[in-house]
């Protein structure tokens, strides 16, 4: 396991600026309203955080027959990606399984596509509470199968597919990596940006950063309760991958940790368990950052740098 050098003692200026903007906006917490209101608020605010859309080789959308009906995927071919047998990344957006969409994470997908010279496939998986667990898992699993089965038509190499995501999307990516292992679908990497791995929400970072650092403990509890069907789902490893019996055989992992994040401790714990079970791990810490910082490219360089670090780790696992 490797770590980045830690020199920060407090909040990064980028994180502090974003938190100041949030306080000035004085928007009500998501948990005080409906999921529809949370989505509208998130959709209105996310363009102010994301940077300019980086041009890619091509981008388009396709509609698949998913487990629960039509499933839209956005497909990016990065600049420099080969026309055939390109490496591919299944990117799963964050948003607590409730909010977020293809547009809110478009910037990140473009970065991955260009930096890795790969094809990125990002699905508009079903959201809670209208579609509770395991709907999102089923959708993401179906898209991975689509990428494998249609690799030639997509111009990708079925043997060089990785999964990635941020926050709840990283939870789905971690779960998908374990399902792929069990389904004997080879993955070259799982790239996990501040992953949610334990729905019990008892780690000490939930206390240390409960309020004042963006994502709060009460908001995260609301997200989880929208997602699960009942309390029994909390211990299901497909909701809480940290609770799985064994991680051996899962894809090599890159794990990014934001130092001032309620999810920091469970991300660290997941990285340790992966390593203990013999999975290659690259762990990178951004001590001064807050949850969601990779989606804040308008306000500082750390966002793109995290994607660059993820791609570097992916290449170290799969030198091609």
Report on the architecture of this protein:
The chain is α/β, with parallel strands linked by helices. The protein has one domain: 3-Layer(aba) Sandwich (Rossmann fold). The chain is built from 10 helices and 8 strands. The protein has an 8-stranded mixed beta sheet, with helices on both faces. Helix 6 (168-183) links the parallel strand 5 and strand 6. Helix 3 crosses helix 10 and helix 4 crosses helix 6. The longest helix has 16 residues, at 168-183.
Mean pLDDT: 95
Number of helices: 10
Gyration radius (Cα, Å) is 18 Å
> Which class do the helix and strand fractions yield?
alpha/beta
Strand arrangement in the largest pleated sheet: 1-2-4-3-5-6-7-8
**CATH class designation:** Alpha Beta
Relevant CATH superfamily: Alpha/Beta hydrolase fold, catalytic domain
Topology record:
Layout: H1 13-25, H2 35-45, E1 58-66, E2 69-77, E3 86-92, H3 106-115, E4 119-123, H4 135-149, H5 151-154, E5 156-166, H6 168-183, E6 190-193, H7 205-208, H8 217-227, E7 253-260, H9 264-276, E8 281-290, H10 302-317
Parallel strand pairs: 3-4, 3-5, 5-6, 6-7, 7-8
Antiparallel strand pairs: 1-2, 2-4
Features:
single chain, alpha/beta, Rossmann fold, eight-stranded mixed beta sheet, 8 strands, 35% helix
Compact overview of the structure:
This protein is α/β, with parallel strands linked by helices. It has ten helices and eight strands.
């Amino acid at each position: 396991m490797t770590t980045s050098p830690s020199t920060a003692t407090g909040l990064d200026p980028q994180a502090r600026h974003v938190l100041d903007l949030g306080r000035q906006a004085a928007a009500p917490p998501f948990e005080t309203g409906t999921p529809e209101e949370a989505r509208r608020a998130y959709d209105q605010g996310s363009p102010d955080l994301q940077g300019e859309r980086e041009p890619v080789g091509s981008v388009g959308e396709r509609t698949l027959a998913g487990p629960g009906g039509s499933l839209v995927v956005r497909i990016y071919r990065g600049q420099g990606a080969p026309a055939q047998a390109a490496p591919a990344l299944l990117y799963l957006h964050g948003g607590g399984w409730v909010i977020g969409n293809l547009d809110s994470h478009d910037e990140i997908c473009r970065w991955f596509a260009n930096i890795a010279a790969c094809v990125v496939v990002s699905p508009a998986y079903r959201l809670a509470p209208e579609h509770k667990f395991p709907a999102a898992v089923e959708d993401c699993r179906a898209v991975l199968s689509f990428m494998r089965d249609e690799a030639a038509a997509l111009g990708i190499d079925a043997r060089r597919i990785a999964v990635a995501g941020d926050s709840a999307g990283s939870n789905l990516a971690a779960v998908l990596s374990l399902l792929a292992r069990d389904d004997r679908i080879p993955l070259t990497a799982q790239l996990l940006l501040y992953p949610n791995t334990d729905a019990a929400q008892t780690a000490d970072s939930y206390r240390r950063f409960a309020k004042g650092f963006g994502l709060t403990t009460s908001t995260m509890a609301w997200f989880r309760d929208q997602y699960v069907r009942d309390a029994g789902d909390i211990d299901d490893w497909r909701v809480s991958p940290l609770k799985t019996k064994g991680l051996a055989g899962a894809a090599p992992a890159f794990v990014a940790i934001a130092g001032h994040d309620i999810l920091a401790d469970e991300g660290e714990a997941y990285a340790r368990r992966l390593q203990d079970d013999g999975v290659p791990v690259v762990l990178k810490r951004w001590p001064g950052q807050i949850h969601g910082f990779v989606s804040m490219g308008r306000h500082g360089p750390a966002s793109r740098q995290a994607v660059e670090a993820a791609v570097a780790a992916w290449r170290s696992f799969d030198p091609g």
